[in-house]
Write a structure and sequence with these properties.
By secondary structure, the protein is mainly alpha-helical. Among the domains are: about 160 residues, Rossmann fold, CATH 3.40.50; about 90 residues, Arc Repressor Mutant, subunit A (Orthogonal Bundle). The chain is about 45% helix and about 10% strand. A hairpin with a 3-residue loop joins strand 6 and strand 7. The longest helix is centred in the last third of the chain and has 17 residues. The radius of gyration is 31 Å and the shape is elongated. The structure holds glutamic acid (GLU). The site of glutamic acid has 7 residues, from loops.
Length: about 475
Amino acid sequence: MEKIKTRFAPSPTGELHIGAARTALFNYLFAKNQAGEFLLRIEDTDRERFIVGATERIIESLSWLGIVPDNVDEPMVQSTRLEKYRAAAETLIKNGDAYVCTCSKEELGAERQNQIAKNLPPKYSGKCREKSQITRGKSQTNQKFEIPNGAVFRMKMPESGKIVVEDLIRGQVEFDAGLLDDQIIIKSDGFPTYHLASVVDDHEMEITHVLRAEEWLSSTPKHLILYKMFGWTPPKFGHLSMILGPDQAKLSKRHGATSVLEYRDEGYLPAAIDNFIALLGWNPKTEREIFTLPELVREFKIENVNKSAAVFDIEKLNWMNADYIKNQISKIKMTDENSKILEKWGYKKLSNDELELIGRGGFRTLRDVAHFLDDLYEEPEYNAELLIFKKSDFGKTKTGLEKSAEKLSALENWDEENLEKILAEVVSENNLTNGDVFWPVRVALSGSEKSPSPVELLVALGKEESLERIQKAMSKLK
Ligand code: GLU
C-alpha cells in the first residue's frame, strides 16, 4: 500500500494563527490515522512579505500543540531550491507549455482597465503567447534562455474545456479553463510563483494528499494542468471550509481568534486547543466532544469533515479549556515552559501538587489559576456575612468553624484524605450540614464566594496559615 504523506506549507509571513493551525492539525490527523508522514514545507518565495523569525515561531507553535512534523529538523525551504523551479519552468518552455512574457506592468494594467471598461472579465490577452508560437521551432533546442530584464514565465492554460477537481471534501468541482489566465510561474525577480513551487515540491516530497484552506481551491485547476504538463500524478486534494465568527463574519481578532502562541501565553492548554480546532469542521458523529490528540488521531476520518463553514466560538474554547484544566490537570506537569509563562505574568512557580489541587477549581485558563493562587497568599479581605451560607445561621457557622479549628489543629497528617474526613466528621458529629462547615471554612481561607474546595485550599495553604485564617474568621463572627 502506498505510504500516506501530507504536508503543511505555511508562508513565514507572521504568527501561526488558529485557522492555519487547523489546516496543520487536519493534515497531521489524516496522515497519522493511516500511519503516514506529516511534513513541513516553508513557502518563502514572496520576499516582500517574508518575516525574519516567523519560521521558528511556526515550528514553536506546532511543537507546543504536539503536531510535530516528521521533518521538523529539516523542513523543505523553497528559497533554497530556486534552480529546481527554474529548471522545471525551462522544461515547460522547451515543451512548448510555457513562454517568456515581456509585457510591462503598465501594458498589463492598461489592458485590464480596458477590459473592465468594456465589462469583460479581466484576462491576459496572450500577446506573448502568440509570439512564442511563431518562434517555437527555435526554442525547442537545448539553448540557454536569455531572459530580458523584468520578464516573467507564463504557463499556457488550455483555451477551452473543463477542468475537474475531485475534492475529498466537496466532491467534483468544475472550472471553465477558458476563463483562466496564463499563470505566471517564474516572477521577474527569478523566484517561482506559489503555483509552480507548490507543484514541483509536492511531487518531489511524494505528497499523496493535500488538505488546505478553501481559498486555494481556485488554484487547484492550475496545479492540475501543471501536473499534466510535467507528466506527474497529482496528489488528492481536499479543501477545508472557512472558519467564521458566530456573527457569520470572517474570523478575526474581535471574535477572540488569535495566534497559537498568544493562546499559550494566556494559559490555554495545548490539548484543549487541539480538541477545539479539530471540531472546527470535523464531525465526530457522536455527542462526545472531548478528545485528546491520540484519540483524535484514532477517530479522524476525512469523510466526516464538513463542507459547510465552521463557526469559531470562543466561549466553547473557554469551556473546553476549563474542562481540561479540571480533568487533566494531574497529567499536566509544571514544565519549564509553564513556569516561564507564570514568571512572565509575575507569578511564582507552582509546585505540581499545588497545580493539581488548585486546578480543580473550575478556572478558565492556567493564568486564572496562577492569578488566584497568587491572591491566595495575600491575606483575604471579606465581610463577616460572607462566612454564613444562605441556608445556615450565625450559631451554626460559628460552631462549624470552632469544631473544625479544634480538629484541624490536632491533625498530624495534613493530606487531602484526612482533611476531607475531618470536615465530614465535624458535620456529622455536631448535627450540622455541609453548608455550616465547608462553606465558612472555604470563605475563611479564600475570602471569596467562588474558589476551589476547602480541602484543596487547606492543602495549598498548609496547616499554620490555614489555622490562622480560621481563627481570624472566628474573631470576625464575635
Ligand atoms: N503557502 C500557502 C499558505 O500559506 C500554502 C497553500 C497550500 O497548502 O498549498 O497557505
